[in-house]
Amino acid sequence: MASNRIVLVAGALLAAVVAVTAAAPWLKTPVLLALANGLAVCGVIVLIRAGQVSFGHAMFASLAGYGVAFMGRAWQLDALLLIALGTLGAALAGALIGLFMVRYRGIFFGMLNLAFSMVLFSVLGKFGHVTGGTDGLRFDRPTFAGQTLERAGFETALLALALVLALAAGWVVMRYFASANGQALAAIKTNETRLEYLGISAKRVFWGGYVLSATLCGLGGSVFALTQGLVTPEMGYWVRSGEIVFIAILGGSGHALGAFIGAFVFEFVKLYAAALLTGAWQMVLGLVLIVMVFVAPTGIFGLLSRRLAGAGASR
Amino acid sequence: MNASLFVLALMDGVSYAALLFLVALGLTLIFGVMRVLNVAHGSLYAWGGYFAATLGLAITSLTLPPWLALPALLVAAIVIGGLLGTVLELTLLRRILDKDPILQLLVTFAAFMVLEDLQRLIWGVQPVFVSGVVDQLGTLEVAGVTYTRYQLLVLPAVAIAAFVGLRWFLGRTALGRQVTAVTHHREVATAMGVNTGRVMWLTMALGGMLGALGGALASPTTSFTPGIGADMMVLSFAVVATAGLGQIGGAALAALLIGLARSFAVYLMPELEVLMPYLIMVLVLLVRPEGLFSTVAARRI
What we know:
The structure holds two protein chains of two kinds. By secondary structure, chain A is an all-alpha fold. In chain A, 78% of the residues lie in helices and 1% in strands. In chain A, helix 8 crosses helix 10 (202-228). Helices cover 74% and strands 3% of the residues of chain B. Chain B has twelve helices and two strands, in the order H-H-H-H-H-E-E-H-H-H-H-H-H-H. A two-stranded antiparallel sheet of chain B has the order 1-2. Chains A and B meet through helix 5, helix 9, helix 11 and helix 13 of A and helix 3, helix 4, helix 10 and helix 12 of B.
C-alpha cells in the first residue's frame, strides 16, 4: 500500500472523527477512549514487530493513570503537564522492568509481563489507604494549558490533543520501524542469532522497543485517566491487557494505522454490543480473536491494504 | 514466630503446595507434549472447582450418602477435565501446532476468555463454597496444632499419588513411553509409528483432569469466585517456569517452595503474600533464565 494511500486513509479517519464529534458531541468520550486505546495498541504493535506478545501491558497504562491521579490530587497540575509526567513515569517503569524482560522471549515474555501486571493489580487493590483500593482514585478536572474549562470545553481540548498525539505516535512508530533499530527489532522475530552475529545486541534493541511500547501505553493510560477523571485497578487488569492485544490483532499489527482502526472498531462495537451481551463480552472477544487468528491474521488493515493494492493494480 | 505458628504455616504450605502441584503438573505435561502453553489451563482449575461444588450440593440436596462427597471430587475432576481437555484439543490445539508461538499463545488466551465468561454464565458471580468433606473427615492434632485431616492427609496423598502415577505411566507403560517419545521429538516419534494425534488427545485429557483435580480438591477449602482461574493460571505458570517448562520432578519441588514461601508470608509479612510466588520466580529466573531444572537447548542458526 503506497504511502500516499496511507495518508489518505488516515486523513479520512481524522475527518470522520472531527465530523462525528462535531455532529454528536456525546460521542466525544467514546472517541477519546478509542484514541487512548489506540495509543496503547501502538505500543503493543512495537512488541509484535519483535515477535513477542505481552499479556500485561495494561500495567503501564495503569501506572501512568495512577501517576496522573496522584499528581492531579496532590499538586493540581495542568493537564498537559500531567500527561507528560504520567507518560514519563510509565517510560521509567518500562525502562526498569524492561531490563529484566529483555532476557525472555515467547511464552516466558508474555507470562512474565502478565505476572508483573497481576502483582501491580493486587498491590493497587490491597493498599487501599494510598490507592483508594478497588474504588480507585477520583481527581478534579485540571486546567488545560492554563485555561480553566468546563466539561465540554475540556473534552474538546483533550480530543484535539489526543488526535495530535495519535498522529505523532503513529508517525513515530512507523519511523521507528523504518530505522536501523526498528529493522533490528524485526530481526528478533526472524532470527535473533543472526542478528547477534552482525554484532548487534538483541537485548539492547529489544529494550529500546520495550521502553517505547511502555511509553506509548503510558501515554494512552494518561489520556484515559484524564478522560474519565477516575482511575481504578481495573485499568491494569489482565482483561485490559488482553483487550489491547486483541485490538492489535483485530486492526492489524503491521502498521500503526491498524492500531487506530482496530481501536475505533472495538470501541464502537463495544458501545452497542456490550448493552446487548452483558456478561458475555469477553466470550465474544475470545471467539472473534480465534476467528481472526485462523482467517485473517493480518487484521482489518491487512484486508484493507490488500484491497487497496488490488484496486491499484487493476487500474 | 512461635512453634505452633511455625507448624501451622508448614501445614498450610504443604497442603497448598499439593494443590498447586496438581495444576502445574497438568500444565507442564501439556507443554512437554504440545510445546504450547495452554493459558486456558487456569479455567480448567476453576471449572473443576465449580463443578465439584455443584456435585457436592447435589449430594446434599438429593440426600445421598455423605461418604460420596470425596469420590465426587475425583469424578468431577475426571469428567470436567477430560471433557474440556478433549474439546480444546479437537477444536483448537490440534490446529495451531504449526503456527507462530505468538498465535498459539493468543488462541489459548482467547479460549481462556471464552471459558471464563461461560463459567460466569453457568455459575454466576456469587462465591461458591461447599465444605462438607472437610467437616466429615474431622481434624487431627499435630504438635499441639489442630488441623483438618482433609488438608493434611488427603491433599498431599493425592498429589503424591498423581506424581508417582504419572511417573509410572510415562516410564513403564507402552502408551506412556509413546507420550515420552512425542515429548522428545514429535516428527521422529511419528516416523516410528506413534499415533501422535492420539497421544496429544490423551495428554490434553490427562492434563485437563489434573488441572480440574486441583480445582476440585481446592473447592472444599477455597471459595470460588470469577477471576480465580486467572490467578491460578499465573501461579501455576510461576511454578512451571521456576522448575523449567516440561520438568515434572522439578514442578514438585517448585510447588513446595512456592507453597511454603506463600504460607510463611501469610503469617510473617501478610502484605507480601501475593508477591511471594512472583518474587521466587523472578529470583530464580534472574539466575537461571530457563528455570531450575531445564536442560540447555541447542542454538539454531
